[in-house]
Structure formats: structure tokens, C-alpha cells
Design a protein that fits this description.
The chain is an alpha/beta fold. The protein has six helices and twelve strands. 31% of the residues lie in helices and 35% in strands. The strands form three sheets. Strands 1, 4, 5, 6, 7, 8, 9 and 10 form an eight-stranded mixed β-sheet that branches. Helix 1 runs antiparallel to helix 2 and helix 2 packs across helix 3. The chain is globular and about 65 Å long.
Length: 216
């Protein structure tokens, strides 16, 4: 299932416009803040699909019937652009456990690349709701590599994949491999370049959020 949040009019489209705007991207604080806000918005929409239980809460003046979350959530994020995105989810699911993955593209001279996963820390996932966040879903290779490596931590009851911008090809790839996963995107773009970057996209989210990297 795919949820493309840009299909509906909401403030998330305003945040997305600023994230894409090359003139406004130079303000790193604003860029990170908008990414965090997108995470919060997706988390709120996602929360509507989770299970809740009824409880009674004692107030200073009586007892109120309330609904509280009845599922255990794990937020997993792919570094480094995923850090402010992750914070947005954590602001909503403040009691969630957390996982972090270091994965990047290792390019070859012929233009191809492979995903090099160098670090992963994760709590048990058995029968829990896994939210895997990655700022950009281009080819889907990073998501696939991450989910493969998370299998040894247990089988989640549900897998949600969250991204700011996804490509049509990347969505098709993930849906073919993980048909039961739910994909949440702020926007979906049609095109990938020869080097598998999303067009129009927004550029390199990690560099825009934290500065350019020196990479061999």
C-alpha cells in the first residue's frame, strides 16, 4: 500500500516546497526543521492505522476514559539524512525504541553501485511495528539491504517505510519485494537519472542537512 501525502492539500506540501527550493536550502536549520516536520506529519497519519486500547485516567477532578497506543513501535532510520526525519517520528512516538543503520552507495567506475552497510544497532523486532525511515527512496536498494539485515532481529507485526520523496521505480521495486509493507511518502517523483538520483527531487539530503562530505 502507498500513501502519497502530496495528493491532498495540507501544510506538508508547504514544507516540501521549501525543502525542494534551492534558494532556501542554503539555510540548513530551516532544511532540517522542515524534514523533521515531515516526519511528524507522516507519524501522525501513520498513527491512525495502529491499535489502541481503552483506559481510565484519573484527573484532579474525576476519571476520564481515554485511548492509548496498544502496540510497541520501533523507529529505524538510515543515516545520515535520516536523523532529522527520525526526530520527527520520535517526537510523535516518544516511547518508541530506536534502530540506526549506516548504509551508503559505493559507486563503481562503470556507473553502477552497491549498498555498503557498515553499522546497525537494533532492539528486538518480534511482533512489533517497524517504521523504517529514509529521507529519499530512489532505487529502493538501501531499503532492501536494511530490511534483509533486520531479519535476524525478529519478524515485525507490520512494516512501514517512510520517506520524504520516492521515485516511481523505487516504489515498484519495494512493493515487489515486500508487498505487505506500507509506504508513506510526502511526494512521488517520476524520473531517475542515469546515476539513480531522483528528478526533480531535492538534491543530496545529507549534504544539505549536515554539509558536504569528503568521499573517495
Amino acid at each position: 500500500m502507498l500513501h502519497n501525502l502530496s495528493k491532498n492539500s495540507s501544510v506538508i506540501n508547504h514544507y516540501l516546497a521549501e525543502i525542494r527550493d534551492a534558494k532556501k536550502q542554503v539555510d540548513r536549520l530551516r532544511f532540517r526543521s522542515n524534514i523533521r516536520r515531515c516526519g511528524e506529519m507522516i507519524a501522525y497519519e501513520l498513527s491512525k492505522t495502529l491499535k489502541y486500547k481503552s483506559v481510565e485516567v484519573e484527573t484532579p477532578l474525576g476519571v476520564a476514559k481515554s485511548e492509548v497506543l496498544d502496540q510497541s513501535v520501533v523507529i529505524a532510520s538510515i543515516l545520515r539524512a535520516g536523523l532529522p526525519f527520525h526526530q520527527g517520528f520520535l517526537n510523535v512516538f516518544d516511547e518508541a525504541d530506536n534502530a540506526f543503520i549506516s548504509a551508503y552507495r559505493k559507486h563503481h567506475k562503470d556507473g553502477t553501485f552497491e549498498i555498503d552497510l557498515q553499522y546497525l544497532t537494533c532492539p528486538p523486532l518480534e511482533d512489533r511495528v517497524l517504521i523504517l525511515s529514509d529521507a529519499m527512496l530512489a532505487t529502493g536498494a538501501s531499503i532492501q539491504k536494511t530490511l534483509q539485515n533486520l531479519e535476524s532481529y525478529g519478524k515485525p507485526s507490520k512494516v512501514h517505510i517512510a520517506t520524504i520523496i520516492a521515485s516511481v521505480d523505487g516504489i515498484k521495486y519495494i512493493r515487489r519485494l515486500y508487498p505487505n509493507a506500507v509506504i508513506w511518502a510526502c511526494a512521488v517523483d517520476e524520473e531517475l537519472t542515469a546515476r539513480s538520483y531522483i528528478v526533480p527531487g531535492l538534491g543530496d539530503a545529507g549534504d544539505l542537512a549536515f554539509g558536504e562530505k569528503l568521499q573517495e
